[in-house]
Amino acid sequence: MSERSFFKALGPGLLFAGAAIGVSHLVQSTRAGATYGLGLVLFVLLANILKYPAFSFGPRYAAATGTSLLEGYRRQGVWALVVYGGLTLGTMFTVLAAVTVVTAGLFVTLWPIEILPVELGSLTVAPHVSVSAGAIALCTVLLAVGGYRWLDRVMKVVVVVLTVSTVAATLLALPQLDAGSMVLLPSAEQWDLKTAFFVAGLMGWMPSAIDVSVWHSLWTLARQRDSGHTPTVDEAMLDFDIGYIGTVILAFCFLLMGAAVMHGSGIEFQDSAGAFAGQVIGLYTSTLGGWAGPLVSVAAFTVMFSTTLTVIDGFARALSVLVARFRGPEAPDEAEGDRRAYWAALALLSGGALLLLQFYVAGLKALVDLATTLSFLTAPVLAWLNHRAILSDAVAESDRPSARLQAASMASIVFLGTLALAWLVVRFGLG
Questions:
Q1: Coil, strand, or helix at residue 192?
Q2: Are the C-beta atoms of residues 376 and 51 closer than 8 Å to each other?
Q3: What range does the domain containing 337 cover?
Q4: 329 and 142 in contact (C-beta within 8 Å)?
Q5: pTM to 2 decimals?
């Protein structure tokens, strides 16, 4: 592998990082550290280990076959496309709503301008919905003007900025970590149904929802068309590993910051996006000093804007290609859905998310918990589809994962499936 060819392949892994490092890190990891100290570190580590195979099969399949994972699903039968489509439609509105409202909250915190409700006939549009609509519009403009090329270039800058600022903020916060935060499991008093449900949500989006493996395969092929370089499997996997390791490191950074600055403070997380964002930034500022506020603010906003941008493109791109796969097979290097379908999917996705934000009144924490738990429950199904795709006849024997990684994939599917089933039994009293 030459250095020049690798840099031509570099990009999809950073898009994966941009999609992953969002609500799961800024909200869920920070909440984990704030509430339990280091008590959930092992669960964060376990989630990242368990999901590695399923995520890695996205870029591996694309590099090995020249087609997307959705073609791998189509080869398994139309039922697999129906399953993926159903799971996507069931989660996409909550996912975009969750990441966008946090982005909107951070925007209002960084630029404290007064935003009034908007009257549309008999409907009053809440301020957080207006700001969320603005964030979606900005992302749409970036994607419309620059397509994948701009997405790739913007995200390379964004990921570098968020990594540097987050690591710096974590190093500044570490001296505040006290001995009471360093217990690696929740206490017996803490371990109740509320904790169990929170852990399910935490693992559901740690480092992200497995849907992103499909997006990653599509980004790998888009990068190939953009650069004119066909990546080898080794190049695609190195690019993926860089992004994946980065997401794991930053997950621990946000958990450590939450444990160091917020654990034991007695302060409850606010339920509105703006109040939550201001609370997080304010706590860091009060502990580390006012000069640290801009650093933490830039890290937080960068995290969430990058996630919003990649989530919008990922869902829209996947849905447009899904429609094409229902019509027929995918030719190598042609994983590009109809552009009209792409924009129709983006409009549907954005409209549904904004409606959810307008009428879902349970609050930020409930919305985030709903989105992350849905991802937790769908994880074993998508992991199983990915496993079947990577071991299909479409993938040459030499390009398939090692026997050890195949075994790890099966073990993770069984474990994730068992956890999801146990959650359903507890939640709904089944059995």
A1: coil
A2: no
A3: 3-428
A4: no
A5: 0.86
Distances (CA, A) of 366 to 37, 52, 97, 118, 383: 21, 27, 12, 25, 26
Task: Please answer whether residues 31 and 269 qualify as being in contact, where contact means their C-beta atoms are separated by less than 8 angstroms.
Answer: yes
Tens of pLDDT along 282-334?
766 766 677 767 777 776 777 788 788 888 989 999 999 999 999 989 876 56
Residue ranges of alpha helices (H) inside 66-211 are: 69-76, 78-110, 127-173, 193-204
Quote the tokens at residue 126: 């809440």
For residue 120, the cross-strand partners are: 123
What does the angle CA 217 – CA 370 – CA 154 come to, to the nearest 5 degrees? 40
pLDDT tens digits, one per residue of 164-205: 877 887 888 888 887 666 676 766 666 777 788 888 878 877
The whole-angstrom distance between residue 139's C-alpha and the CA centroid of its chain comes to: 16
Residue 421 banded pLDDT, cuts 50, 70, 90 = confident
Residues for the chain: how many in total?
A: 431
Q: How far apart are CA 311 and CA 140, in angstroms?
A: 11
**How far apart are alpha carbons 256 and 314 in whole angstroms?**
29
Q: Which residue has the tokens 């769908």?
A: 378
175 DSSP assignment = G
Structure-block tokens of residue 366: 């409930």
In angstroms, the CA 337 to CA 340 distance is 8
Q: Residue 273: what pLDDT?
A: 63
Quick one: CA dihedral 334, 338, 341, 346, positive or negative? positive
CB-side exposure of 109: number of CA atoms within 13 Å? 24
How far apart CA 346 and CA 355 sit, in angstroms, is 14
Domain tally, the chain:
1
Q: For position 317, which CATH number holds?
A: 1.20.1740.10
pLDDT (0 to 100) of residue 180 = 64
Question: Which pair of tokens denotes residue 4?
Answer: 């020049």
Assess contact for 264 and 179: CB atoms under 8 A: no
* Token code pair at residue 399: 């390009």
